[in-house]
Design goal:
alpha/beta; 10 helices; 300 residues; 4-stranded mixed sheet
Chain lengths: 300, 300
Amino acid sequence: MGSIAYDAVETPHGRVDRMLGGACTYIALAASYFTKTGVVAVVGDDFAQEDINLLSSREIDLQGLERTPGKTFFWSGVYSHDMNDRMTLRTDLNVFADFQPKLPEAYKTQPYLMLGNIQPALQRGVREQMNGLRLTGGDTMNYWIQDYREELLETIRDWDFLLINDSEARMLSGEHNLRRAAATILEMGPRTLVVKRGEYGAILFAQGSHFIAPGYLLEDVFDPTGAGDCFAGGFIGYLAERGVDPRGGAVDLQDWRRAVIYGSVMGSFCCEQFGVDRFRTLTREEVEDRYREFKACTDF
Amino acid sequence: MGSIAYDAVETPHGRVDRMLGGACTYIALAASYFTKTGVVAVVGDDFAQEDINLLSSREIDLQGLERTPGKTFFWSGVYSHDMNDRMTLRTDLNVFADFQPKLPEAYKTQPYLMLGNIQPALQRGVREQMNGLRLTGGDTMNYWIQDYREELLETIRDWDFLLINDSEARMLSGEHNLRRAAATILEMGPRTLVVKRGEYGAILFAQGSHFIAPGYLLEDVFDPTGAGDCFAGGFIGYLAERGVDPRGGAVDLQDWRRAVIYGSVMGSFCCEQFGVDRFRTLTREEVEDRYREFKACTDF
């Protein structure tokens, strides 16, 4: 669940005025390499058939895709020369402004839920419509951390994992040091925390220990848009494929760790082309190859 | 070989007006946990006996420590709140200004040489005084890369490894992307490149492949001064302990990789206390414990 959007993006490698984007899009595309995936999102009547076709080509269930008169959520941004910073130029919520996610019946008994970054109350609302969840995780952002703190805290309290970037972890916890930040956040409810560090990888805090995964060393980063959401999709997709069920006791730590690597793998592919383009051709075999490459370049 | 200095350092955790420092000091202290180490450096007549005692307590050979009338090299700097930046407040070269390193006879046949950051021509001069070297590596900095480029290129051409940080690698190669930067630098001569990334770890480029090591996740970073030099000391110290000899054919890739981890281990200890203080009590057993911890928190 999350946004499906049209993005305009400029990076040092070029510029695209309108391309499919949004957290839900990237999460679903990445997760679809591991498990049957469905989306909960809203688009306007301008949403293109070719974009529907792309999602369908990955066998993504679109029953939960609401279509509303008006325009699809639009975001535009420009990346700095080193691509470590980006500036938002425009955010038009459009049909997303009045989004009240309602789950199709068939979704309500699904076991795995990934809540993309969106207002915490809406994230909570989706979770409450579901029965039989094995694993719920979600993302958030600085805006909700600063201005909707209580609502956010009430929401993440029940999640199995929280997946945010390092600056968000620092903001949420009030601690600069990531080990301390993680300890503080784990007391807020989520039993597992994944801190994304962009090109530097990610850290998993789970079951009393931590796991540090370096970022994949790309030769060309064309467009980092969506990489964090692809990480999330690969992460929960792999956990779903493995059928992990924390209610039945502790999850094998190696499953958490491998999920982080698969998340990194999906995020790295995302950066190789503009927007979702890499997913037009990416195969599961390539995913496995890169997983093995990760293993090869971190083993000692 | 490199600088032995007195430093004044301010970090968010406190301030020290005068403490033992300098690249050579940190390199030698870290290397001394792995192998018999000697220094080539100069100090003034103000150099304190207690600092001699610390080096001696680690069984560091001081035959190559020149004592000259005048003051020891002095550096002072202040770290930003997140300790990712530091500003140099003062650099007084003092006796270091006229340093012409001359090796004691006993040093000339040593097999391992680590050249700390210093003017490239002096680094070359030291290397030329030695016969029977198995492995030579060195560090440099932005100043030499920008203003002494030809001298630097002539110097590093003959090194077995170059060990610099990411911004230096970008400056030296003119490439922002680290994979491309590494490819360019490896064509300049060094057969192995280690790119240090501060808290994010290091990347080794050797024998046609690369190894990405994450940084150790410290709970408290008191003072990062010297961490990069401790990395260098741990790195070459371990290679010396293993007796690697690239002249006899390819070094076992695992030796290079483990050297990076030992480098990271030594750098991480360095940050735990001000200046060299952590090395007053650190034991080899603690080094091994942290190496195992590195393994445990990166394994998947």
